[in-house]
Amino acid sequence: MSERYPHLKVDDPEVYDLIQRQAKQESTTLKMIASESYASIDVLEACGSIFTNKYCEGYPGARYYEGNEVTDALENLAIERGKTLFGCEHMNVQPYSGSPANAAVYRALLNPGDKVMGVPVSDGGHLTHGWKVSFSGKDYVQVPYRPNQETGRLNMDEVREIALRERPKMIWVGMSAYPFKLDYAAFAEIAQEVEAYLVADIAHINALIIAGVHPDPVPYCDVISSTSHKMLRGPRAGFIMSKVEDRYHAKYHENSKWNLAQLVDRGVFPTMQGGPHMHAVAAMATAFKFAQTEEFKNYGKQIVKNAQALCEELEALGRPIAGGGTETHLLLLDFRKNDFTGKDASQALAKCGIIANFNMVPGDTRSPSKTSGVRLGTPSLTSAGMKEGDMKKVAEWIDRVCANINNIDEVAPTIRAEIAEFCSGFKFPGIDE
Ligand code: DSN
Question: Could you confirm whether 233 is annotated as catalytic?
Fold first, then answer.
């Protein structure tokens, strides 16, 4: 690990030590939380920059504070890079993260009490897609749709039937634990039929879209939200893309003077947020620059190759995968037939240096606090340079942990040491550079 943070080391050794401990954890274990990766060193530097000081409520050219010539240039740079990267008409880079971005989308498009189609959290959806404990399920009415309990896949005929029956005003497409490709074209047809806004949440899969290994939502969706961390490897922040024109202006916003892009911008500021986090915007601009490179596209492709290789190896070892495979960055180990739970497995994996999370699987009969699954993702391992051949080793460790759940404390030190030794053969971005 390179020597960094010389000032912090002297002035606040406690925080410095905690950073060192986290860096050690992230470079000696297998980070397999599907929503994590490694931010690049450039992103970390931009995130730690002087832009953290600046208040600039408003948008470039129309701020509520003086002295924003430089932040205007920065925000415009981030927007232009983002628009080029995704080929969208409009972009807002101010959301503090994914959930605030989604909150802004609701405020931009809907009124409290409106119906929203989304996948429940227990079926792989996100909290902000209308789940009952979130603002989105309290202020709006979720009309649920879910992957088939047998196949683990969405059935678009079923989605259409629900939309025709319920007539939602907005349809979310995008999940946190769905291993298959999403058919945005089919969603768009349904949305058009029922005159609903189609909103994609691509936080989990943005790099796959950039790499061309997942369908592109931009031609089909009114609005698209995302985080810039996760597999994009940027700062912990969010952004929103949209078309400029509101195709339902006459139906839903007849008395508004705003087009769709303006509705989105107003949904973010002043409706949901105050001053943007310009250090995060700086880091987002840097992440967007890197995401335009061939290196990044190859990373996006490799994420899927690694996930598929991992699936094959695990299945060969007799560990069932929900839905029988993956087309994305994640897979769900299916422990429905085992006498241990997903939570038992994720805790045992963590003891051995494989960091993941327990997760419901299709057809799960255990509670969400126990579950029958573990969600595994490959973005972090891919960022560190691991390839298909390495997934064989990873699968073998996972299998060993599962086989030793009942005596995990005995085997954990050995497996943990093997994994740490394995990790020492890789360079972890932001840590070993
Ligand atoms: N919390 C993220 C995940 O792990 O999927 C989603 O925002």
Answer: no
